[in-house]
Amino acid sequence: MTDVRYLLLAEGFSADPHYGKTARGVLRYRRDDVVAILDSTRAGEVDDGVPVVGSVNDALCFNPTTALVGVATQGGRFPPEWIEILKSCIAKGLDIENGLHVFLADDPLLAELAARYKVELRDLRRPPSDLSTATGANLQVPGTIVLTVGSDCAIGKMTVSLELDREARSRGLRSIFVPTGQTGIAIAGWGIAVDAVVSDFIAGAAERLVVEGSERGGELLWVEGQGAILHPVYSGVTLGLYHGSVPHLLVLCHEAGATEIEGAGGGPHPIPPLRELVELHERLALPVRPAKVVAVALNTRRLSEDDARAALAAATAETGLPADDPVRFGAARLVNAVLGMG
Amino acid sequence: MTDVRYLLLAEGFSADPHYGKTARGVLRYRRDDVVAILDSTRAGEVDDGVPVVGSVNDALCFNPTTALVGVATQGGRFPPEWIEILKSCIAKGLDIENGLHVFLADDPLLAELAARYKVELRDLRRPPSDLSTATGANLQVPGTIVLTVGSDCAIGKMTVSLELDREARSRGLRSIFVPTGQTGIAIAGWGIAVDAVVSDFIAGAAERLVVEGSERGGELLWVEGQGAILHPVYSGVTLGLYHGSVPHLLVLCHEAGATEIEGAGGGPHPIPPLRELVELHERLALPVRPAKVVAVALNTRRLSEDDARAALAAATAETGLPADDPVRFGAARLVNAVLGMG
To answer: CB–CB of A236 and B229 under 8 A?
Structure first.
């Protein structure tokens, strides 16, 4: 992975924490590998030290090797205007990594073009071809499995897992981040997008991930959560991942102040109180592997520091659990909670 | 559908309620369309009026038009010995309907053979190609949506939905069975196997099914349940179907006396008390569409009649809900409960 130099494709969404979450995640956790961001709506800006360009041509002076699709669209389809960008990347000799549901390598036109220009089309969400149903091997994994769960999508479950993993590693623990979605895979370089597998195999995919995380040397496995247990669109993935990854411990993630699930039709879809979410998640654990919520991770990006600290205190008062914003205030407190030192 | 004459392929499992559940379901609800059953382990027997034969050749005198794969295997793969049976069916000019995960039409050898003999390979589990995420259109469906949920797989959720639909139709109600799995699809002639869609689209598939059930004239929609909410392998499908079908009412299905989920590795996987399952399901309803469990459907096939009646009384005492075995004692009581006449 050390030779990869990314051009992040994020047209229109490079600053959007929801639709641009892959771009934001890669920028945060793999910034050294990113040489430019493509977003004509912000061309000329510099984002966290990385230049934003308006076209593929303008990016070439930064010598990218690979274009990474940095947006997530609902349903995972490609907007038509993107095809032109992708063709342009291929014609300039860039490999493409794509985390959307639609697989680039299955597009005859793009595949033909890629063959002609000798570039690789890597579809991060393409499931392993030999997936099957869960077998129970997950329950044999030694060590401690920690899953992030949350009140909504795109509120920071992956970020929390990454921050806590980084903190645990900094303490010398054999800790590993277990990626379950396209951004996590782009950051860590392995994983399965559990939302892209055949439904019957969700738990089987999650099982394989914790087994592999253990084989990669992890004794403390931070499984990236997906969706939300009461999300009208994605809850199936959430529960299948929960049961297939058989966590011992859960960290409940929530965006401070959010009261409704966003982006789901037919709403409003209110978010229940944190206390209820804690109890609901614990009751949904498999009897064979009881799981406890040990901490609350609050995303306080929209609050002042004073308000953030008040929100953390309120979350603790409501749930009786340690609460912190690991991005804002560091991950030490949450890692302590997971290690039973909270 | 009136011209279809089925040869039920159920080699080794024609009497098995679990692995042979497609065969059993089609025999129960579409028996007039079945001319023979293939199961060499029972050749010469007569099953509920239908002859059991030992080979495809022996079935030809009954003039089948279509061979229906009547077994379900975990993971949905084809045992190798089956390929020979399928090739034999094709060579005799039979169309094939298949509900397993592996698609026959994608097998180059079988597809080539089917083209040569001019027969059709219909993969019942193949999802519509234009599926996407749920939109909220499910919440606009008029009428009453009733989902069967259960304590385990293969305990009779589909059967309960079919029996209650039949009873409702006999009362002149505009009632429809909404198929969500291969057997239901084989019986009803439409539907989507929700366990075969991409995980992100489970709720979207369920949404499409209730919308279609309504468009087909249903004012009372009986959605076939799948899996179980605490099933270590299939719970993701269960919850996605629950949230995507947005039921108003739930019927909780349970096999009387069962205490553990069967066939899942790494166990034991105990089944919680019925009262807890009722509460857990109600708490998992989307806030925008609260759902109540209105009745318990007990599968009492392993009990004497006296013991069955005692089990029903115990279920009512535990849950405070009407309880009945619709296969054994008729569906009237459960339909009354759903209609608020219980």
So the answer is: no
